[in-house]
Design brief:
By secondary structure, this protein is mainly beta. It has 3 domains: 51 residues, Ribbon (Laminin); 57 residues, Laminin, CATH 2.10.25.10; 49 residues, Laminin (Ribbon), CATH 2.10.25.10. The protein is 11% helix and 29% strand. The chain has 1 helix and 12 strands; from the N terminus they run αββββββββββββ. The strands form 6 sheets. The protein has a two-stranded antiparallel ribbon with strand order 1-2. Strand 7 and strand 8 form a beta hairpin. It is elongated, with a radius of gyration of 28 Å.
C-alpha cells in the first residue's frame, strides 16, 4: 500500500512538473492549449487562409505579433522590423548565400543565420537591380552563338580538344550553339572550321 502511495505521488509530481515546463514561454508569449495554426506576423497580420485545427504551445500575447514565422514576439506596430519589398518576406534565419538568377545553386556557403528580408519561396534575386523575381522568369542572356541550357556538359569541347573525357553531370549555363565550338583563346563560340589551325 505504501509502495502504491509513493508511486502515485511520484507520478503526480512528474506529470505536474512536465505540464508546468510546457507552460513556460519566452518573453511576450503565453501558453495556450488551443492556439491558431497561423499566428499573425509583421508581414501578415491577418492570415486569410488557415486551418481551424488547435495548436498547443506558446503564442504571442495580445498586442504582439511574430516578427517572422517562428521568430520572437514584438509589439504589433512592428516599428523596428524592416519593411520588405515586393515578393520578399522577413526572416530571422536567412541564408548568407541567397539564390540569384546567375547562381541558382550556390556551391559553398557558411552555415550562419542572417536576419532580414529574403525572397519568397520560388523567387530569386535578379542579378541587376536585386529585385525578387519568379525563378522561371530569370533572363538567360548568353553571348553570340550561344544558347542557355539547363543541362549542358561539365566539360564542353574546345577548338584544341573537341571531345573531352568528363564526368557526366548536368550544368546550367550558356553553351555554344549546334555547329559551334569554344575558341580556347577568345573564349567565344566559333564555327568549327574557324578554329585556329594547329601546327
Amino acid at each position: 500500500m505504501k509502495l502504491q502511495l509513493l508511486a502515485g505521488i511520484f507520478f503526480a509530481t512528474v506529470c505536474y512538473t512536465t505540464a508546468d515546463q510546457e507552460k513556460t514561454c519566452p518573453e511576450n508569449e503565453e501558453y495556450k492549449t488551443c492556439g491558431t495554426a497561423c499566428p499573425p506576423t509583421c508581414q501578415n497580420k491577418s492570415p486569410q487562409i488557415c486551418t481551424d485545427n488547435c495548436v498547443i504551445g506558446c503564442f504571442c500575447k495580445k498586442g504582439y505579433v511574430r516578427e517572422a514565422p517562428g521568430g520572437r514576439c514584438v509589439p504589433e506596430s512592428c516599428e523596428n522590423v524592416p519593411v520588405c519589398g515586393k515578393n520578399e518576406v522577413f526572416s530571422t534565419c536567412a541564408t548568407a548565400c541567397p539564390k540569384t538568377c546567375d547562381d541558382s545553386e550556390p556551391k559553398i556557403c557558411p552555415l550562419v543565420c542572417l536576419t532580414g528580408c529574403v525572397c519568397k519561396d520560388n523567387y530569386v534575386r535578379e542579378s541587376k537591380g536585386g529585385k525578387c523575381v519568379p525563378e522561371v522568369a530569370c533572363k538567360k542572356e548568353c553571348g553570340e552563338n550561344e544558347i542557355y541550357n539547363e543541362c549542358g556538359s561539365l566539360c564542353p569541347g574546345t577548338c584544341s580538344q573537341p571531345v573531352k573525357v568528363c564526368e557526366k553531370k548536368c550544368v546550367k549555363g550558356c553553351f555554344c550553339k549546334e555547329g559551334y565550338i569554344l575558341d580556347d583563346k577568345t573564349r567565344k563560340c566559333v564555327k568549327r572550321d574557324e578554329c585556329p589551325k594547329r601546327s
